[in-house]
Design a protein that fits this description.
- The chain has 131 residues and is an all-alpha fold.
- The protein has four helices and no strands.
- It has helices at 2-11, 23-48, 57-80, 91-122.
- Helix 2 (23-48) packs antiparallel against helix 3, helix 2 runs parallel beside helix 4 and helix 3 (57-80) packs antiparallel against helix 4.
- The protein is elongated and about 50 Å long.
- The mean pLDDT is 76.
């Protein structure tokens, strides 16, 4: 009976300690940080592009790429995780990366559309502009 309970206990997954940095937590955290950078860059492009003509296209693309990267890595991390939050598999970081990546992608896309719109009208003379 004792051997059966010891074998059963050794098969059960052990939750990681709250302060252990496991590979899953590292990947989830890195994905969330990349997505967070995308949110900050995308937000700053939208705020700065309100008073500027052109110029924010490269940063808008950076925000879009960072958001998509955070979403993909976060989704992959969630797909391979074999436990819930607190197991050391990076589930919370992966979910946060998905959310922040979505926000960064939307902000990057909005900034990209805005930079294209301002870039189109910046090169025209007053006679060529449509009222």
């Amino acid at each position: 009976m004792l051997a059966a309970s010891a074998a059963h206990a050794s098969v059960q997954p052990v939750a990681a300690d709250a302060y252990d940095l496991t590979a899953g937590r590292l990947v989830g955290t890195a994905a969330a940080l990349v997505a967070l950078v995308g949110v900050v860059v995308g937000g700053s492009v939208l705020v700065r592009s309100a008073g500027r003509i052109g110029g924010g296209r490269r940063r808008a693309i950076t925000s879009l790429v960072a958001g998509l990267t955070g979403m993909v890595v976060g989704a992959l991390n969630l797909a391979v995780a074999d436990g819930g939050p607190g197991t050391g598999n990076g589930v919370v970081g992966g979910a946060l990366a998905l959310l922040l990546g979505l926000i960064a992608s939307v902000l990057g896309r909005l900034a990209l559309v805005r930079s294209r719109r301002t870039g189109r009208t910046a090169g025209r003379s007053d006679d060529e502009r449509v009222s």
